[in-house]
């Protein structure tokens, strides 16, 4: 059975990469993308809708386009946005997506929601290898952790009500992406990295291509549930700073992530509120459930992701280009009347 797919957040680098992957699949009959901003590069088959995740808009799109698979990528998992904007996007926006997918009249049979391993936070007492059931066992330590927990609770409640839908939550690992300016990428691109004295945490990173392919496989698979997805292996913070030739100053006292982040930002260094705790205690998740369920594992290790990011910073590999000729060609095709299309 061919799928009709809707991707929210389709203009983001990850959403666009996912859209381009889905375009190449013969078992995807039609694909639609939704975002508030215009895409930076053209698509071959994806039909783009310039709008947000308001309930009324989504209901109309899903019903009229007969969408059977929704991939909700319009979630903010980096902790860089103002709290109000982040809450509106992650909680209110997701609530609208879930409402639009609900009800007996909904054609949706599969829903995938992008979350983050940031939902676990970072603190003393967490397992050395974090499994999916760890989330929510302790009060959240940051605003981002609290919002992700609230968002995932909404998704869980939706899955319990919509027994005819397969609902998947994918907690993506941390990514190093200059194009999207992820929280880790911003902090590790600065000339100096401040962290807690006496700590050399273990970290994991996920390649952008692996993140997109993981969401693709989750969307076109059969199982539902909550899954971690991060790169294989671990890398120490000292190894990261060495690979990036970054001046690393472990001089801060360990403590509240948000309080330490405020101090670091006052010094002019970019750091999201959840990063100080991660740069103190680290985070390594167990992705075996995803691998066994969907029969696929990320192709790049955490160490390889760091090396690739180092090459980008050194100018040995560029970021994803803006495909201006392709974009212009795409827009011309969209403006051309249907009767003017010819074969070949």
Could you give a short description of this structure?
It contains twelve helices and eleven strands.
How does this structure look, described?
- The chain has helices spanning 13-23, 55-64, 83-100, 143-161, 183-189, 208-219, 237-243, 257-266, 275-281, 288-294, 302-313, 324-335; strands at residues 3-8, 28-35, 47-50, 69-72, 110-116, 166-172, 192-196, 202-203, 225-229, 235-236, 247-252.
- It is α/β, with parallel strands linked by helices and 344 residues long.
- It has a single domain, classed as Rossmann fold.
- α8 crosses α9.
- It is globular and about 55 Å long.
- The model is unreliable at 317-331 and 338-344 (pLDDT under 50).
Detail the topology: elements first, then pairings.
Elements: E1 3-8, H1 13-23, E2 28-35, E3 47-50, H2 55-64, E4 69-72, H3 83-100, E5 110-116, H4 143-161, E6 166-172, H5 183-189, E7 192-196, E8 202-203, H6 208-219, E9 225-229, E10 235-236, H7 237-243, E11 247-252, H8 257-266, H9 275-281, H10 288-294, H11 302-313, H12 324-335
Parallel strand pairs: 1-2, 1-4, 2-3, 4-5, 5-6, 6-9, 7-11
Antiparallel strand pairs: 8-10
Helix pairs in contact: 1-6, 2-3, 3-4, 8-9
């Amino acid at each position: 059975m061919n799928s009709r797919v809707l991707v929210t957040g389709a203009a983001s680098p990850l959403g666009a990469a996912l859209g381009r992957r889905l375009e190449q699949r013969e078992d995807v009959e039609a694909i639609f993308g939704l975002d508030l901003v215009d895409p930076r590069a053209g698509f071959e088959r994806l039909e783009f809708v310039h709008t947000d995740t308001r309930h009324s808009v989504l209901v109309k799109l899903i019903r009229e386009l007969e969408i059977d698979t929704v991939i909700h990528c319009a979630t903010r998992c980096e902790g860089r946005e103002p709290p109000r904007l982040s809450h509106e996007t992650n909680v209110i926006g997701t609530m609208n997506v879930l409402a639009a997918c609900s009800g007996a009249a909904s054609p949706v049979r599969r829903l995938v929601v992008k979350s983050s391993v940031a939902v676990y936070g970072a603190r003393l007492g967490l397992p050395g290898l974090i499994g999916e059931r760890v989330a929510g066992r302790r009060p959240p330590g940051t605003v981002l952790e609290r919002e992700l927990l609230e968002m995932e609770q909404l998704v869980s409640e939706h899955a319990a009500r919509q027994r005819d839908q397969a609902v998947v939550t994918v907690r993506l690992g941390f990514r190093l992406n200059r194009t999207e300016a992820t929280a880790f990428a911003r902090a590790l691109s600065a000339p100096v990295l401040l962290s807690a004295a006496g700590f050399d945490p273990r970290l994991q990173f996920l390649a952008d291509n692996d993140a997109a392919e993981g969401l693709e496989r989750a969307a076109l698979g059969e199982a539902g549930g909550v899954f971690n997805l991060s790169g294989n292996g671990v890398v120490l913070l000292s190894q990261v700073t060495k690979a990036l030739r970054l001046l690393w100053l472990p001089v801060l006292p360990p403590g509240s992530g948000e309080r330490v982040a405020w101090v670091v930002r006052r010094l002019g260094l970019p750091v999201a509120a959840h990063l100080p705790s991660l740069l103190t205690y680290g985070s390594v998740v167990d992705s075996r459930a995803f691998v066994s369920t969907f029969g696929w594992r990320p192709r790049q290790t955490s160490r390889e992701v760091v090396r690739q990011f180092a090459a980008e910073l050194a100018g040995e590999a560029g970021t994803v280009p803006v495909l201006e000729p392709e974009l212009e060609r795409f827009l011309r095709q969209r403006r051309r009347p249907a009767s003017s299309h010819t074969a070949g």
